[in-house]
Amino acid sequence: MQTKSTKSLYLVPYYAWIALFVIAPIALVTYYSFFDINGHFTIENYKNFFTSVYLTLTISSFWYAFLITLFSLIIAYPTAYWLTKTKHKQLWLLLIIIPSWINLLLKTYAFIGIFGLYGPINAFLNVFGIGGKQILFTDFSFIFVSVYIFIPFMILPIFNALDKLNPSFIDASRDLGASSWATFTKVIFPLTINGVKAGIQAVFIPSLSLFMITRLIAGNKVITLGTAIEQQFLVTQNWGMGSTIAVFLIIFMVIIMIITGQRDKGATSHGKNK
C-alpha cells in the first residue's frame, strides 16, 4: 500500500515541470514587461497597451479568432456527427488527423503555391475565362488556411462527445414526437456541449496568437497579437512592450479557458444507467 509520502514523491516531476515550464516563463515575461527599450523600469508599456493602436489590434485579433473558430465549428460539427454514423469511423478520423502531423510551415508554403497567381486555383478560373484573381494576401486566404489547419482540433473533441452520447436519449426524443431539429437543439447539442467547448479552446486560443500564417498567407495585412509580439521582439527589439502584449494575451487565454470550462456530469456515457 502506498503511503502519503510516496504519493507526494510521484508528484515531484509534475510540480517541477509546472514550475520550470509554466510558472517561470510567465514570471519572466511579466518581469520584462516592466522595462522599456533602454532597460529602465517603467509602467509605460501597460499604459501604451490601452492606447487606440493596441486596443484596435486586440479587437482585430479577437475578431479573426472568432471567425476562424466559427467556421471551424460550422464545418466540424456536422463532419463529426457524420463520422459517428459511418462504418469505418476510426479510419475516416485517422485521415482527418494525418494532415495535422505535417509541418505547419510546409502546409503554409503549399497554400502559397495553391493560391498564387500561377497556382491551380487561378489556372482553374482561367479555364472558365474568369481570369486570375488576387487570392493570396487577403482575409479570405488567411481565414481559409487557418480553418484548414485548426479544424482537426475542433473535430476531435466533438467527435468524442458525439461518440459517447447515449443513443437511447435520441430514441426517446423521437418516440416523444420531437422533430429532428428539436432533437438536435434540445438533446444532442446540449449533451455534447463539452466537446464544443473543448474544440473552441483548442481553436480560439491559438488563433489569437497566430503570426506565421499572417506573415506568409496574409502578407502582414492581418495583424494579430502574435504578430505584434513577434515584431516587438524581433524587429523593434522592444522586449518590454512585447512582454506586455504577451502578458495580456495570457490573461485573455485564461479568461477564455474559464468561460469555456467543462463540467463533465457523466450523462453522456454509454454505460450510464437510468
Automatic annotation (TrEMBL):
InterPro entries: MetI-like, MetI-like_sf. Keywords: Cell membrane, Membrane, Transmembrane, Transmembrane helix, Transport. Its main location: membrane. The keyword Cell membrane applies. It is found in: Cell membrane. The chain crosses the membrane at residues 12-34, 54-79, 91-115, 135-159, 198-218, 238-259. One of its GO terms (cellular component) is plasma membrane. Residues 58-260 form the ABC transmembrane type-1 domain. It is a multi-pass membrane protein. Pfam families: BPD_transp_1. Belongs to the binding-protein-dependent transport system permease family. CysTW subfamily. This is ABC transporter permease.
